[in-house]
Amino acid sequence: MHLILGASGQLGSRVAHRLLDAGEPVRAVTRHPQRVEALATRGAEVIQGDLLERDWMPAALNGARSVVLAAHGLVPPSRKNHPDAVDGTGTRHLLDQASRNGVERVVHVSVAGGKGPETSFMKVKRQTEGHLRASGLPHTILRPTVFMENHALVLMGEPLRDKGSVTLFGRGATPLNWISAGDVADRVVEALGDMDAPDATVEIGGPEVLSRLEVLALLEEALGRSAKRRHAPVAVVRILKGVVGPFHPGMRHLLELVLAEETRPDSVPVDPTRFQWIGPTRVAEVVERWVHGDRSAA
Hints:
- With 298 residues, this protein is α/β, with parallel strands linked by helices.
- It has a domain at 2-145 and 181-204 and 267-279: Rossmann fold (3-Layer(aba) Sandwich).
- Helices cover 43% and strands 18% of the residues.
- The chain contains eleven helices and 13 strands.
- It has helices at residues 10-21, 37-41, 57-61, 84-100, 120-135, 148-163, 181-192, 212-223, 234-244, 249-262, 283-291; strands spanning 2-5, 26-30, 45-48, 66-69, 105-109, 139-143, 146-147, 165-169, 176-179, 200-205, 209-210, 228-232, 277-278.
- The protein has an eight-stranded parallel β-sheet with strand order 3-2-1-4-5-6-10-13, sandwiched between helices. Strands 7-9-11 form a three-stranded mixed β-sheet.
- Strand 4, helix 4 and strand 5 (105-109) form a beta-alpha-beta unit.
- It is globular, with a radius of gyration of 19 Å.
């Protein structure tokens, strides 16, 4: 049995569908069972669970050979559901329970190493990686870059399509490496294919480097409309973080990531060849599938 945390998300849903395609048993954990009806219809066992709580964990882990950690508390930002609580404390509690239950393999989806300032989100992820290593559980830690589906389609594509306007933080000109959730799902399933593989931490990325402005241009071309662009200045983001951050952990993490991206020196290299594994899918491919209505778990 493969236990998948974050089964209703961009990554977790794709991993679940791929495993079901291969005839593997899947137990899908989500806070919102109604969002995984397609998985339930295909035979997945669905468990309502929240990493902010622990009572569901023993039953969910009972009989599970592997655990895929694809849940996060970053988006949408919340006072309660935030990285410290979800990616940190909650995930560590689950790992402790997994160790007691004799899980044979954990695939933990972390975050790529930064070439600029270290953020609180990265620190939380690295602390949980350390907890996983110390647990003795056999594991693969994957560190992907920016997900196309979230950062391109949700943050820019949907506002452009629905309202004709897109809000960018700062200039939006920082070069970023983009990876598709489908490629990451393939790498997760690959890691689950060998329960006896040595422990590994793998930095993974996509084949191209583009700024958010360049990705927005791809979306404009595909949708056939120009965006009304709104830029939130870095100075405003910095002030907002200082005012809201102490009282809203979710916003603090998110705004800190924005600042780290926008203040990273242009000279910092983002060459895809630095990654240990590179997915083949390009941003334009994901955009075209989305524009033409392919919203399946690709």
